[in-house]
From TrEMBL, chain A:
<keyword id="KW-0812">Transmembrane</keyword>
<dbReference type="GO" id="GO:0008137">
    <property type="term" value="F:NADH dehydrogenase (ubiquinone) activity"/>
</dbReference>
<keyword id="KW-0472">Membrane</keyword>
<feature type="transmembrane region" description="Helical">
    <location>
        <begin position="113"/>
        <end position="131"/>
    </location>
</feature>
<feature type="transmembrane region" description="Helical">
    <location>
        <begin position="38"/>
        <end position="60"/>
    </location>
</feature>
<feature type="transmembrane region" description="Helical">
    <location>
        <begin position="280"/>
        <end position="300"/>
    </location>
</feature>
<feature type="transmembrane region" description="Helical">
    <location>
        <begin position="206"/>
        <end position="226"/>
    </location>
</feature>
Automatic annotation (TrEMBL), chain B:
<keyword id="KW-1133">Transmembrane helix</keyword>
<feature type="transmembrane region" description="Helical">
    <location>
        <begin position="120"/>
        <end position="141"/>
    </location>
</feature>
<comment type="similarity">
    <text>Belongs to the CPA3 antiporters (TC 2.A.63) subunit C family.</text>
</comment>
<keyword id="KW-0472">Membrane</keyword>
<feature type="transmembrane region" description="Helical">
    <location>
        <begin position="38"/>
        <end position="55"/>
    </location>
</feature>
<dbReference type="InterPro" id="IPR039428">
    <property type="entry name" value="NUOK/Mnh_C1-like"/>
</dbReference>
<dbReference type="Pfam" id="PF00420">
    <property type="entry name" value="Oxidored_q2"/>
</dbReference>
Automatic annotation (TrEMBL), chain C:
<feature type="transmembrane region" description="Helical">
    <location>
        <begin position="347"/>
        <end position="365"/>
    </location>
</feature>
<keyword id="KW-0472">Membrane</keyword>
<feature type="transmembrane region" description="Helical">
    <location>
        <begin position="6"/>
        <end position="26"/>
    </location>
</feature>
<feature type="transmembrane region" description="Helical">
    <location>
        <begin position="377"/>
        <end position="399"/>
    </location>
</feature>
<feature type="transmembrane region" description="Helical">
    <location>
        <begin position="38"/>
        <end position="57"/>
    </location>
</feature>
<dbReference type="GO" id="GO:0016020">
    <property type="term" value="C:membrane"/>
</dbReference>
<feature type="transmembrane region" description="Helical">
    <location>
        <begin position="169"/>
        <end position="191"/>
    </location>
</feature>
C-alpha cells in the first residue's frame, strides 16, 4: 500500500473531481463531502509519505503504469516534494472546510462544478510537485492554470476580464517553459529530471542549455508574478471569490517557486545555476525590486484583498531572492518560506473571507469596529499579520531569520535591507487596518451603502447591530490556521534540520 | 552576410517558429480586441508546437513503425519489443547508442525513423492549447455580456467611469 | 568561582502565570472576581520570583529551556542576579499597580476594563520574560510581545489623540526593533554563531571595531524603549494612556525593559572588553549624557504633569545607560541599582499624578496651586518620590546616584560627573516648584474648594506603599544592592 502512495495522492483527487461534478445533480451536499474526503485522503497520503521519507531518508519513486524511467513518467517524492505536498493538501483541505458557507452562498446550484474545479486544481498542484518528468510538469502546470482560470473567472463581474489577462500572461509563461523544455530535450534527449541532472554537468558550456535555462526560468517568473511581470496577479486574485482566493493565493505562487527551485537544483544542478552562470546577483536584484515594489503598492491599496495580493508579490521576491543568494541559509529560508507563507496567506485570506461574509464589503473602512464585534477573528487576524510582519514566535519571523542570515552570509546587504524595509511596510499596512478596526466605531459610515458596487453578488449584510463573531465552522478552521503559524514557527528548527536540510544538495554550503 | 543567410535557411524551422511566436506575442500585447488577442495566443502556442514537431524530423526518415529484420519472436513479445524500440528511438541520436545496447542485435537503424516522442508530446500540448482557447473564449463571452463590447479601451473606459 | 546551575521550570512558570490568568479574567462575571484573578496571578508571580532569590544571592543560576528552536539557540530562561533584580522590581510593583488600577479605573468609570486587565497581564508576562531570558532571541521575542501588548493599553481611550499617539508609539518601538535591533541581532549571530548572554560578551575576537560600534549603536537605538534621543518622542506621546498604565509601563516595565535590554546586550553580547577596547563605551556615554541633559531641560518647560514626568523618565533612563557604559565597578552597580530605585520613586510620582486627576480632573501643574492642602498624603508622597528621583536622602534614589557619582570618578571621566550633578540640579528645578505650588500659596491663589478631597482609598494606599518603600530602600538597599553587585561581579569578574 505504501508503495502506491505517490500515485494515490494524485489519482484520488483526480477521479473524485469527475465524481464531484456529476454528484451535484443528485444531491446538493454531496459535492462538498466528496471533495473534502478526497482532499483528506490526499492529506493522509502526503503525511504518510513525509513520515516515510523522513524516517528512511530515501526518496520514493513511483513508475506510473509500471513504465520505467526515463521513458515512463516517474513520480519522485523526496524531502522537498514531500513537505510541499503536505502544505498543498492541508491548505486546500482547510480552506475548503472553512469556506463551506461561502461556497454554498456563492454557487447555489453550481456547487458540483465549483468543487470539481477546486479538487482538480489541487490535484494539478500535487502532480506538479510530485512529478519527476519535465514535460509532465508542463501538462500539470496547465491543468492547474486552466482550473485556476475557471475558479477565478467565477468571481464577481470584473473577474472575467481580469482572468482573461491572467490567462494571456499565464499562457505566455507556460509556453515559455514548454519551449525551454524543448531545448533541453534537444541537448540531452531526455525529459526525466533525474537523468537530466546527470547529463547537465557534461553540457555546462552548451549554448542550448543556457537558452533552455533562461527560457524556462523566465516562464516561471511570469507564472509566479515576479516584477515586472506581476501585473496579472493583483487583479485576478482580488476579483476571485473568497473560496477560490483562499485556495489559489496561498498555493499557486508558492508551488511555482517550488518548481523554480526544483528546476534550478534538480534539473540544472546548483553548480550550473549558482557557480557557472553569473546571473544570481541580477535575479536577487530583481527580487529586491519586487519586494520594494510589492510593499509600496500594497501601501497604496484601499481594498483589503488587493492589499493582500501585493503582499503576495513581495513575498515572491523574498523566496526568489533568498533562493538565488545561493547559500544554504538562503535556500533553507526560501524553502521554509514556501511553507510559512502558504500558511500565512491562507490565514489572511480566510480572515478576509470572514470579513466579506460578515460585512459584505472588502474595503478598509468595512473593518470599522470589528475588534469589538468579533474579537476572536480579529485576534487570529492580528496573529497572521504579525507573522507577515515577522514577529516571533510566529513562523514569519523564522523564515525571515534564515533569509536575512543568508543575505548577511552572502554579503548581500541590499537584500537584507529590502527584507527589513518590507517588514516595516507590512507593519504599517496592518496597523493601519487595526487602527480602523480598533478606533473607528462600527456602523458610522455613510458611503457604506453605495460602496458595494464591486463586491459580491450575494450579501449577508444582516444589519449593523446583528454583526457578531463569525460562525463556528468558519472560525475554527481559521483559528487552526492561525495556531499553525505559531506551531510552524516553534518547530522551524526541526523542519530545517529534519527535512529542508536534506532537500538541498550537499554541494551547496 | 551569406553565412547568416545560409544559417537561417539551414534552420528554417527555427526561424519560422520564432517569427510565428513574435506575431502571436505582438497580437497579444498590441491588439485592442480581445478576440484578436486570443487568436494571437493561439498562434503563439502553435509556434511552439511547430518547433517541437520540427525537431523530431530527420531527412529521409520515415514514421517509426518497425519492420522486423531480426529473428522471429513470439507475437506478444515482439509487440512489446517494438514499443520499446520506438520509445528508444525517441532518445535523440547520441542517447540511443547507450540505451539500445540490448536491442542492438535487432539492428534498428535510428537514422531510418523520425523521432516520435516530440510528436507524442505535442498531442498533449495541442489538447492543452484547445482547452486554453476554450476557456479564453468562454471568458470573452462573459466579458462581452458584461460590457457589451470586446474592445479593451472601451471596457477600460467603462471601468473608469463606472 | 563555580556557579551553581539549577534546572527548574520556575522561571517559565513565573512568565506564564499571568498568561494563564487571562481566560479567568475574560470569563469572570463580576469585576471583583476578575480582579481577584489578577491579584492571584500577581501574587503567585511574586512568590515564584522570590523563591528563586536565595539561590541567586548564593551566586546560583536557574535555567530552563522551553523550546529548542535551533540546535544551539532556543527559547531559554536563565535567572541570574541582574535578571532577578529587574524581575523583583516588576513583579512587586505589579501588585501595587493592580490595586491602584482598580481605584483609578473604577473611580473614572473607564470602558473596556476587562481588555485593560488582560493586556496588563500579557505585558507583565513579557516583562518577566525579558528579565529572565538567557539569549537575545528569547529577549527579542518578549520585547516584541511587550511592544504589542502595550499598544491597546496606550490607546485605551480609543480617541483621536490615542490614535495618533499609538501610531507614534509603534513607529518608534516597532520601527526601532525591526529596523535596527533585528538586523543587528542577525549580523551578530552571523559573526559569532551564538546569541547567548555570557559574562564577557560573545563579540570579542569575532568583529572589527567598526562593526562592533555600528552593532552597539544599532542595539542602543533599536531598543527604542530606553528612550535615548532621538528615539525618545514616543514616551511623552504615550502619556495619553490611563495613569496606571503610564505608571507601571512607562515608568517601570516598558522603559526599564528597554534599559535592561540595552544593558544586557552591552554586557552579555558586546562585552565589556569590546566596549572598552574599541572606545564604544565613550561614545555611548556621550550619547547618554546628551539625553540626560536635554531631557531634563525639556522637562522644565512642560506644564502637563505627566509629560514632565515622562521627560524626567527619559533623562533617568539614560543614567542607567551612562552608568553601565562607564564600565567602572561602582558606575555599573549604580546603573543597575538605578533600575530599581528609580522605579519606586517614579511610580510614586505617577500614582500621585493619577490620584490628582482622579480627585480633581486636573492635569496641568499651573492649575495645582494649593492642592497640597486638600490632598496632603498624596503630595507628601509626591515629595518623597521627587526626592528619590532627584537623588537626595533619605530616599533610595540617593544610593544609586551615589554609586553613579563614584563610578564617574572611578572611571576617571570627571566630565560625566558634571553631567550627573547638573542634571540633578535640573531635576530639583523641575520637581520642587510642583511641590512648592501645592503647599505654599496664599489663600487668594488657592484654586481648590473645601470639598476637594483625597482620591479613593484604592488610589492612595498604593502610593503610600511605594513612597514608603522608597524611603525604606535608603536604609535597607541590600536586596537590590547585593543583586546589582553580584551582577557586576558576573560581568567584570573579581
Amino acid at each position: 500500500m505504501t508503495r502506491h502512495l505517490p500515485a494515490l495522492i494524485i489519482v484520488i483527487p483526480l477521479l473524485s473531481a469527475l465524481v464531484t461534478s456529476g454528484s451535484g445533480w443528485f444531491n446538493q451536499k454531496a459535492p462538498f463531502r466528496i471533495a473534502v474526503s478526497a482532499l483528506l485522503l490526499s492529506l493522509l497520503c502526503a503525511v504518510l509519505m513525509l513520515i516515510q521519507v523522513v524516517t528512511t531518508g530515501i526518496a520514493m519513486e513511483y513508475r506510473m503504469a509500471g513504465w520505467a524511467g526515463p521513458m515512463g513518467i516517474v513520480y519522485v517524492i523526496d524531502h522537498l516534494s514531500a513537505i510541499v505536498l503536505v502544505v498543498i493538501t492541508s491548505v486546500s483541505c482547510l480552506n475548503l472546510v472553512a469556506q463551506r458557507k461561502n461556497i454554498h452562498a456563492e454557487f447555489k446550484d453550481k456547487q458540483g462544478a465549483f468543487n470539481a474545479l477546486y479538487v482538480l486544481f489541487t490535484a494539478g498542484l500535487i502532480g506538479m510537485t510530485a512529478t519527476g518528468d519535465a514535460f509532465n510538469l508542463y501538462v500539470l502546470l496547465e491543468i492547474v492554470s486552466l482550473s485556476g482560470y475557471a475558479l477565478i473567472g467565477l468571481g464577481n463581474t470584473r473577474a472575467p476580464l481580469a482572468t482573461l489577462n491572467y490567462l494571456f500572461l499565464g499562457t505566455i509563461g507556460a509556453t515559455f517553459y514548454l519551449l525551454g523544455v524543448g531545448y533541453l530535450y534537444i541537448a540531452t534527449g531526455t525529459l526525466n529530471m533525474a537523468e537530466l541532472t546527470t547529463m547537465i554537468p557534461k553540457l555546462m558550456d552548451s549554448g542550448v542549455i543556457l537558452f533552455a535555462f533562461i527560457i524556462c526560468v523566465t516562464g516561471l517568473f511570469v507564472k509566479m508574478a515576479l516584477f515586472p511581470v506581476h501585473g496579472w496577479l493583483p487583479d485576478a486574485y482580488s476579483q476571485a471569490t473568497p473560496a477560490a482566493a483562499g485556495l489559489i493565493a496561498p498555493l499557486t505562487t508558492k508551488v511555482t517557486v517550488y518548481i523554480l527551485i526544483r528546476i534550478c537544483m534538480t534539473v540544472f544542478t546548483p553548480e550550473y545555476t549558482f557557480d557557472h552562470l553569473d546571473i544570481s546577483g541580477f535575479i536577487v536584484l530583481v527580487a529586491v525590486v519586487t519586494i520594494v515594489f510589492g510593499s509600496l503598492s500594497a501601501l497604496a491599496q484601499k481594498n483589503v484583498k488587493k492589499m493582500l495580493t501585493y503582499i503576495i508579490i513581495a513575498e515572491v521576491g523574498y523566496m526568489v531572492g533568498g533562493f538565488f543568494l545561493g547559500n544554504r541559509l538562503g535556500i533553507s529560508g526560501a524553502i521554509l518560506h514556501i511553507i510559512n507563507d502558504a500558511a500565512m496567506t491562507l490565514a489572511l485570506f480566510l480572515a478576509a473571507g470572514i470579513f466579506i461574509w460578515k460585512t459584505g464589503g472588502e474595503s478598509r473602512s468595512d473593518l470599522k469596529g470589528l475588534f469589538a464585534k468579533m474579537p476572536f477573528t480579529m485576534a487570529g487576524f492580528v496573529l497572521a499579520a504579525l507573522s507577515v510582519v515577522g514577529v516571533p514566535p510566529t513562523c514569519g519571523f523564522f523564515s525571515k531569520w534564515y533569509l536575512i542570515s543568508g543575505g548577511v552570509q552572502a554579503g548581500n546587504y541590499l537584500f537584507v535591507a529590502a527584507l527589513i524595509f518590507s517588514s516595516l511596510v507590512n507593519a504599517v499596512l496592518f496597523f493601519r487596518l487595526f487602527e480602523i478596526a480598533y478606533f473607528e466605531p462600527f456602523g458610522e459610515d455613510e458611503d457604506h451603502a453605495h460602496g458595494h458596487g464591486n463586491s459580491h453578488g450575494s450579501h449577508h449584510h444582516v444589519g449593523a447591530l446583528a454583526i457578531k463573531e463569525a460562525p463556528l465552522d468558519m472560525l475554527v478552521p481559521f483559528l487552526a490556521a492561525c495556531m499553525a503559524l505559531i506551531v510552524l514557527g516553534l518547530y522551524s528548527g526541526t523542519i530545517i534540520t529534519n527535512i529542508i536540510q536534506f532537500a538541498i544538495p550537499t554541494g551547496v554550503i | 552576410m551569406e553565412s547568416i543567410f545560409s544559417l537561417v535557411l539551414a534552420k528554417a524551422n527555427y526561424a519560422a517558429y520564432i517569427i510565428l511566436m513574435m506575431i502571436g506575442l505582438y497580437a497579444m500585447i498590441a491588439k485592442n480586441n480581445l478576440i484578436k488577442k486570443i487568436v494571437g495566443m493561439s498562434i503563439f502556442q502553435t509556434a511552439v508546437i511547430l518547433f517541437y514537431v520540427s525537431i523530431g524530423c530527420k531527412k529521409g526518415a520515415t514514421i517509426p513503425i518497425l519492420r522486423h529484420h531480426g529473428h522471429p519472436e513470439p507475437v506478444g513479445h515482439a509487440a512489446e519489443n517494438a514499443g520499446a524500440h520506438a520509445m528508444d528511438a525517441a532518445h535523440g541520436a547520441e542517447k540511443v547508442v547507450a540505451h539500445a545496447v540490448d536491442a542492438a542485435h535487432n539492428a534498428v537503424h535510428v537514422a531510418d525513423y523520425i523521432n516520435p516522442l516530440p510528436h507524442v508530446l505535442m498531442l498533449t500540448a495541442i489538447v492543452v492549447g484547445v482547452a486554453t482557447l476554450g476557456v479564453a473564449l468562454a471568458l470573452a463571452i462573459r466579458v462581452y455580456n458584461t460590457y457589451g463590447t470586446l474592445e479593451e479601451d472601451e471596457i477600460n473606459q467603462q471601468l473608469r467611469s463606472g | 568561582m563555580p556557579m551553581e546551575t539549577v534546572f527548574s521550570v520556575k522561571p517559565f512558570l513565573a512568565v506564564l502565570v499571568s498568561l494563564i490568568a487571562i481566560p479567568g479574567i475574560i470569563s469572570s462575571r463580576s469585576q471583583n472576581i476578575r480582579e481577584s484573578w489578577t491579584f492571584a496571578a500577581a501574587g503567585i508571580k511574586l512568590v515564584l520570583v522570590l523563591s528563586m532569590l536565595p539561590l541567586v544571592l548564593n551566586k546560583g543560576v536557574v535555567e530552563y529551556t522551553v523550546f529548542q528552536v535551533f540546535p544551539n539557540l532556543g527559547i531559554t530562561f536563565r535567572v541570574d542576579a541582574f535578571g532577578m533584580l529587574f524581575a523583583l522590581v516588576a513583579s512587586s510593583l505589579w501588585i501595587v499597580t493592580s490595586i491602584y488600577s482598580i481605584g483609578y479605573m473604577r473611580s473614572l468609570d473607564e470602558h473596556s476594563q476587562t481588555r485593560y486587565f488582560c493586556f496588563f497581564a500579557v505585558a507583565l508576562s513579557a516583562t518577566i520574560g525579558v528579565a529572565f531570558s538567557a539569549n537575545l532571541l528569547t529577549m527579542y521575542l518578549f520585547y516584541e510581545m511587550l511592544s504589542l501588548a502595550t499598544y491597546p493599553l496606550v490607546t485605551h481611550h480609543q480617541d483621536k489623540e490615542a490614535r495618533s499617539s499609538g501610531r507614534k508609539y509603534l513607529f518608534y518601538i516597532l520601527g526601532g526593533s525591526i529596523g535596527f535591533a533585528l538586523p543587528a541581532m542577525l549580523i551578530t549571530y552571523h559573526f559569532t554563531g551564538t546569541l547567548d548572554f555570557t559574562g564577557h560578551g560573545v563579540m570579542a575576537g569575532h568583529v572589527t571595531s567598526g562593526t562592533a560600534l555600528v552593532l552597539s549603536l544599532m542595539f542602543l537605538f533599536g531598543f527604542a524603549k530606553v528612550g535615548i534621543m532621538p528615539m525618545h518622542s514616543w514616551l511623552p506621546a504615550a502619556m495619553v494612556a490611563p495613569t496606571p498604565v503610564s505608571a507601571l509601563l512607562h515608568a517601570v516595565a516598558v522603559v526599564k525593559v528597554g534599559a535592561f535590554s540595552v544593558v544586557r546586550v552591552f554586557t552579555g553580547i558586546v562585552g565589556t572588553g569590546v566596549l572598552a577596547d574599541y572606545n564604544i563605551s565613550l561614545v555611548v556615554c556621550v550619547i547618554a549624557s546628551f539625553t540626560v541633559i536635554v531631557a531634563s531641560m525639556i522637562a522644565l518647560s512642560q506644564d502637563e504633569l505627566k509629560r514632565r514626568l515622562a521627560f524626567s523618565t527619559i533623562g533617568q533612563l539614560s543614567y542607567i545607560v551612562l552608568g553601565v557604559a562607564l564600565l567602572s565597578k561602582s558606575g555599573m552597580t549604580g546603573g543597575m541599582l538605578h533600575i530599581a530605585m528609580h522605579a519606586f520613586g517614579k511610580i510614586t510620582l505617577f500614582f500621585c499624578a493619577g490620584a490628582i486627576f482622579c480627585a480633581t480632573g486636573i492635569k496641568y501643574i499651573s492649575k495645582m496651586k494649593g492642592i497640597g492642602r486638600r490632598m496632603p498624603i498624596t503630595m507628601t508622597a509626591f515629595l518623597i518620590g521627587s526626592l528619590s528621583v532627584v537623588g537626595l536622602p533619605p530616599c533610595g534614589g540617593f544610593i544609586s546616584k551615589w554609586y553613579l557619582v563614584l563610578g564617574t570618578i572611578e572611571a576617571g571621566h570627571i566630565a560625566f560627573l558634571f553631567v550627573l550633578l547638573s542634571s540633578s540640579f535640573l531635576n530639583a528645578a523641575y520637581f520642587f516648584p510642583v511641590f512648592y505650588n501645592a503647599f505654599f500659596c496664599s489663600p487668594e491663589e488657592m484654586l481648590f474648594e473645601d470639598k476637594v478631597n483625597e482620591a479613593p482609598l484604592w488610589c492612595v494606599v498604593p502610593l503610600v506603599i511605594t513612597a514608603g518603600i522608597s524611603v525604606v530602600l535608603f536604609f535597607y538597599p541590600q536586596p537590590f544592592l547585593n543583586l546589582a553587585k553580584l551582577a557586576v561581579q558576573n560581568v567584570l569578574g573579581g
